[in-house]
């Protein structure tokens, strides 16, 4: 009996020793293999340049992180059908062959992050990994994700894409990820969040988009994010975010929007109104412009603070616009994302007037010579200040009706916006059609010199005389 116990103890010790012995039972040299709690091959931090070929087929976990691996071949794990965890992070991997993870239908965790030279991923790299719930692709130098790269990953819950060089994401990139709860996209170079970029993420709980270069979020960008509780958009290039964009986020609890250059004028009103309904926690939204509101929290402003508008530096206008079929002139401005709202149209946008072909407008006679060269006519017009009609009549600007030919009209949109501007924003500005001082001087000269030449002018100028006479 005593001998049997001793022999049994020796046998147990031998089994344990063989189970832990490097190279035993097909374990790769220098690696450590053990079967409890699950069959595992541990080969981390060994300076390996290639993936070992003697990995036991029954392995469920393989740790190959912190080596010098450069390539993942299509045959590296082809026999490991029981694999559930594969760690390949912190290597020098620059290429993953097509089909490298094919057949790993039980794989749940795949970490290939921190491979700075892995800049391109095959569209089918993760095809067939239907049970994968965690995927690490952080710090890989990725500048683009191919269309369909996450197709079929129906079980994915955690996706780490931070610290890459992503400039944009294709529409429907995450369409199959209905179970995704955490999406990490921070510290990239993403410039816009489009309407369909995040489509399909109906279970998303956390979205980290901070420290990018986001300048614009389209109105339906968050349409599917009804379960989102955490949204980080701080330290981007945002200036405007509408309340309509934020409305679908009915479960939001934690919001960070600091570190942006918020424009606190009429365009911020819908976001301000949304904050009145928001019950969660938020960082401050420090106003960048106008100067009198700089540094103040948008959410704490009064409604009267948002009545005015500013002239954004991005908007550029030209007095020589292209005439439309309706006879009105279209501005050549490049407004902020889809057009500057009517309440925020700058004053210099209301001077898009040029004379029609043929007879020039009357006000130009006083500051330039008459010429038949259209190019010179255009050059002279650019130096002329035009008058602004009385906006109090019929709610629009008066149109000149002199018999010297038609004058280009204002756009209806521009007319309506004038009444919404703050008085202090237009005080001190000379209206586009205000009387010039040169006109008064010219009037005196005309009156002085009419005497001896009045009779000869009709013969010299014909109908033009009557126009000059009306001016003088």
From TrEMBL:
GO MF assignments: ganglioside GM1 binding; ganglioside GT1b binding
Keywords tagged on the record: Cell membrane, Cell projection, Glycoprotein, Leucine-rich repeat, Lipoprotein, Membrane, Receptor, Repeat, Signal
Coiled coil: none
Record field: compositional bias (Basic and acidic residues): 375-391
Family from the record: Belongs to the Nogo receptor family.
Domain of life per record: Eukaryota
Keyword field contains Nucleotide-binding: no
One Pfam family matching this protein: LRR_8
GO biological process: positive regulation of Rho protein signal transduction
Name of the protein this chain belongs to: Reticulon-4 receptor
UniProt-annotated location(s): Cell membrane; Cell projection; Membrane raft; Membrane
Polar residues bias: start-end ranges: 321-334, 363-374, 393-416
GO CC list: cell projection; external side of plasma membrane; membrane raft; perikaryon
UniProt key word Lyase: no
UniProt membrane topology term: Lipid-anchor
Signal peptide boundaries: 1-26
Species for this entry: Conger conger
Main location: membrane
Disordered: annotated segments: 321-417
């Amino acid at each position: 009996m005593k001998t049997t116990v001793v022999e049994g103890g020796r046998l147990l010790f031998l089994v344990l020793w063989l189970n832990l012995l490097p190279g035993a039972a097909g374990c790769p040299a220098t690696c450590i293999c053990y079967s409890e709690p699950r069959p595992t091959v541990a080969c981390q931090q060994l300076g390996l340049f290639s993936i070992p070929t003697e990995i036991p087929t029954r392995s469920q976990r393989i740790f190959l992180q912190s080596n010098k691996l450069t390539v993942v071949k299509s045959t590296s794990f082809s026999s490991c059908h029981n694999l559930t965890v594969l760690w390949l992070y912190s290597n020098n991997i620059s290429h993953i062959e097509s089909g490298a993870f094919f057949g790993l239908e039980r794989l749940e965790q795949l970490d290939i992050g921190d491979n700075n030279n892995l800049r391109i991923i095959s569209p089918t790299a993760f095809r067939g990994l239907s049970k994968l719930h965690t995927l690490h692709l952080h710090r890989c130098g990725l500048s683009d994700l191919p269309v369909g790269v996450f197709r079929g990953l129906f079980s994915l819950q955690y996706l780490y894409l931070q610290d890459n060089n992503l400039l944009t994401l294709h529409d429907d990139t995450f369409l199959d990820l209905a179970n995704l709860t955490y999406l990490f996209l921070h510290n990239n170079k993403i410039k816009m969040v489009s309407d369909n970029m995040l489509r399909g993420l109906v279970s998303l709980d956390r979205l980290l988009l901070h420290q990018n270069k986001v300048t614009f979020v389209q109105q339906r960008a968050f349409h599917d994010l009804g379960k989102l509780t955490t949204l980080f958009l701080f330290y981007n290039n945002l200036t405007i975010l509408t309340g309509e964009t934020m409305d679908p986020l009915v479960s939001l609890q934690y919001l960070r929007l600091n570190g942006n250059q918020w424009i606190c004028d009429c365009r911020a009103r819908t976001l301000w109104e949304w904050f009145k309904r928001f019950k969660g926690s938020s960082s401050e939204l420090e106003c960048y412009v106008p100067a009198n509101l700089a540094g103040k929290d948008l959410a704490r402003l009064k409604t009267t603070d948002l009545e005015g508008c500013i002239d954004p530096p991005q908007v550029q206008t030209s007095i020589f616009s292209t005439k439309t079929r309706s006879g009105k002139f279209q501005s050549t401005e490049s407004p902020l994302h889809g057009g500057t709202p009517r309440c925020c149209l700058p004053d210099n946008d209301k001077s898009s007037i040029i004379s029609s072909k043929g007879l020039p407008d009357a006000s130009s006679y006083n500051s330039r010579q008459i010429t038949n060269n259209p190019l010179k006519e255009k050059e002279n017009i650019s130096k002329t200040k035009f008058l602004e009609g009385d906006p109090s009549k019929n709610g629009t600007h008066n149109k000149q009706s002199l018999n010297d030919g038609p004058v280009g009209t204002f756009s209806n949109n521009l007319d309506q916006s004038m009444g919404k501007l703050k008085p202090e924003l237009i005080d001190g500005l000379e209206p586009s059609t205000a009387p010039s001082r040169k006109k008064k001087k010219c009037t005196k000269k005309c009156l002085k010199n009419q005497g001896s030449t009045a009779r000869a002018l009709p013969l010299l100028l014909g109908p033009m005389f009557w126009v000059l006479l009306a001016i003088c």
